[in-house]
Amino acid sequence: MRRPPPIEPPRRPLNGAPAATDTVEDDQPFVAPFPRTKPHGRAESAASAEERRPPEAEPAESDTAEADEPVVGLRDVWRAARARRRVLQSEARRFTAAQRRRRRIWIGIAAAFVLLVGGSTAAAYSPLFAVQTIEVAGTHALKASDVQKALSSELGKPYPLIDQSVIKAALVRFPMVETYTLEAVPPHELVVRIVERTPVGFIRTGAGYTVVDAAGVALSTTPTRPSGVAQITAGGVDSASFRAIGEVMRALPASIRDKVTAVSAQSPDAVTFTLGPTGTIVVWGSADQTTYKVAVLERTMKARPPAGVHQYDVSAPNAVVVR
Q1: Burial class of residue 263 in the structure, from the number of CB atoms within 10 Å of its CB (0-12 exposed, 13-18 middle, 19+ buried)
Q2: CA neighbor of 120 nearest in space, from 155, 156, 160, 154
Q3: CA separation (Å) from 194 to 5, 81, 164, 296?
Q4: pLDDT tens digit string along 45-92?
Q5: Are residues 204 and 315 in the same domain?
Q6: Contact call for residues 251 and 284 (beta carbons, < 8 A)
Q7: Taking 80 as the threshold, does the pLDDT of residue 111 lie above it?
Q8: 272 part of a folded domain
Q9: pLDDT surpasses 80 at 121
Q10: CATH number, position 253
């Protein structure tokens, strides 16, 4: 065993302060400091062993917390689940608000459209819109009362139930009708607008004198010569000469056409007609440039009235010849 080192004497402070032993009372014995030595080998003091002993583990907080937490029941779980569903539904409604608003708008528009169409259809087929009067417009040679009488079978019918074929069959019996249109004037009126055929003259037939239009449709036949229309001399209503005459006569204004007493054509390019009562002859030529020739003839007749003229030649409208 190793011998310990000798004990050092107490050190006096350099600044002249009294040593530690000076403060010790006289009646107490002097005890010199003795340094603590570390035991050798395996012999250890109980104090050092106690100091190196690890601290005892404190009880875990989770154990006490679990002891303090209340017991969760089935009713609490159900309430939590219901609250969660409500939150999810609220969020879903918030995110789909614009989509649901657009859907409501489209549903409203569709419902209004269906209501409008359904209501209009029901009203149209009801007696609220039944025909009670028939108005005929555009007739001159025809009598409007005759047309109304022929269409009387359509009175009392709603507008959608008007039979177009019945009206056509009734108007076909009138040769003067060239075209027609129907116009519904709610709530109870039906207007029939008629375009009459324009008579261009008459031709001699075995039945007498037949008035025809530009297409050769017979408008009327009388045993005596009709007044107010010109006599047509051509190779029949199916010839090219007759078609040329029809184009020229339809293009003439009423102020000139009513004065024509005779019209003839040896060929489609040689149309001539006579103005009464002066007997002035108009050499027209072909049916080309008809509108321009009409304007030239009107201007020439105003400058040189037919009373002092034997012939107007407008076959070449840029070089009119007056004799």
Answers
A1: buried
A2: 160
A3: 152, 81, 15, 32
A4: 444 545 555 555 554 454 444 545 566 678 888 888 888 888 888 877
A5: yes
A6: no
A7: yes
A8: yes
A9: no
A10: 3.40.50.11690
